[in-house]
Write a structure and sequence with these properties.
By secondary structure, the protein is α/β, with parallel strands linked by helices. The protein is built from 6 helices and 8 strands. Helix 1 runs antiparallel to helix 5 and helix 3 crosses helix 4. The protein starts with a strand and ends with a helix.
């Protein structure tokens, strides 16, 4: 199993020049609607006296999903589960249920993770990224884990960009089995599986984002 840590100094091309990461590029043009809605809901919670600060509910709401996510990653890596000391029993129970549901799905579909946390750079398009995993269920597929309450457009764009990274660096090992996204809901840790056989449109959009990212930098220098 390939296991490469996310580069702390950022991604660099063959000549040593820094290149932007997938999430940095997508984030520059990300729809802010979800963030605005969240802030609006936080404002209403403050009016009701449920919170005092903007981020009071953010961390606790994500705890079950984050814990479940960590448990799945620990299992794949063959590492001990995260320490749950101090975490309320209700949250650990929710995380355990999500983990059990993931394990049932993985077993029923005979999923095997062959490569994990693979940091790669595209010399052709000049960007980098760290793939969650490459999975095999008869064919080589790209897998990703998200702690999120929904599936968003940028998730698909990110997966498409990761496919290019993998196939550019491993042309003899193409992704033929599609894309698997395993999602753990923030509040309850519920597990949901999403699959796409192809994401060609998402890849075309990422290429536009990559070009726009460079143009954006040039335009900023003129103001």
């Amino acid at each position: 199993m390939v296991k490469i840590a996310h580069p702390k100094s950022g991604y660099k091309n063959f000549s040593g020049k820094k290149v932007p990461g997938v999430t940095t590029i997508i984030g520059r043009f990300k729809d802010s609607g979800g963030l605005l809605y969240w802030a609006f809901e936080q404002g209403k919670a403050a009016e009701r006296g449920e919170i005092e600060r903007l981020y009071d509910l953010r961390d606790s709401a994500a705890q079950a999903g984050t814990l479940c996510h960590s448990m799945v990653e620990a299992h794949i890596r063959g590492e001990p589960f995260p320490d749950v000391k101090g975490i309320p029993l209700a949250i650990t129970a929710q995380a355990q249920q999500g983990y059990d549901n993931y394990m049932t799905w993985a077993k029923n579909n005979k999923m095997e993770v062959t490569d994990q946390e693979v940091a790669l750079v595209s010399e052709r398009y000049q960007y980098g990224g760290c793939l969650d995993c490459i999975m095999v269920d008869g064919e080589r597929a790209l897998g990703d884990w998200k702690t999120s309450n929904a599936i968003y457009q940028d998730h698909l764009i990110q997966l498409a960009a990761y496919k290019e990274l993998w196939e550019e660096n491993y042309p003899d090992k193409p992704i033929t089995g599609g894309f698997h996204l395993c999602r753990f809901s923030k509040k309850h840790g519920d597990f949901a599986h999403h699959y796409w056989s192809e994401l060609d449109d998402a890849w075309e959009q990422f290429k536009l984002f990559r070009k726009a990212y460079e143009l954006d930098k040039k335009i900023k220098k003129r103001v």
